[in-house]
Amino acid sequence: MPTTLLPPPPRPVFKRKPAEPLPVGFLAKAASLPGGRTLAVALALCIHATSTGCRTLTFGAWLRTRYAISDDAALDALNRLSSAGLISAKRGRGRFAVVTLHLDDEAPLAAA
């Protein structure tokens, strides 16, 4: 008796959440600023803001550790980004910086 081969069952289709757009203009302005870790800090802030869906966030030690940014480099980068008008940072003594990203004047151009 001949046996017939059945085709394998179809693979399940997993639907992914659409990628959040990256603010290319914001990152381009941050890349033009001096300093070694300014772009890294800006990118960390953008990734955290898009993952939480909020433009105001706390730049805590866990975020600096995740992206390998030292405390001094983070402070310098926040000062540069703030003086360029890309962010607003509120710092209190013994507190993590609360950062607000200013992305209102641009349209996102690229998907992550």
Structural account:
With 112 residues, the chain is of the alpha+beta class. It contains 4 helices and 5 strands, in the order E-H-H-E-H-H-E-E-E. The strands form 2 sheets. Strands 2-4-3 form a 3-stranded antiparallel beta sheet. A two-stranded antiparallel ribbon has the order 1-5. Strand 3 and strand 4 (97-101) form a beta hairpin. Helix 1 runs antiparallel to helix 2 (38-52) and helix 2 (38-52) packs across helix 4. The longest helix is centred in the middle third of the chain and has 15 residues, at 38-52. The protein is elongated, with a radius of gyration of 21 Å. The N and C termini lie far apart (55 Å). Residues 107-112 have low confidence and may be disordered.
Which descriptors would you attach to this protein?
4 helices; 15% strand; 112 residues; alpha+beta; two-stranded antiparallel ribbon; three-stranded antiparallel sheet
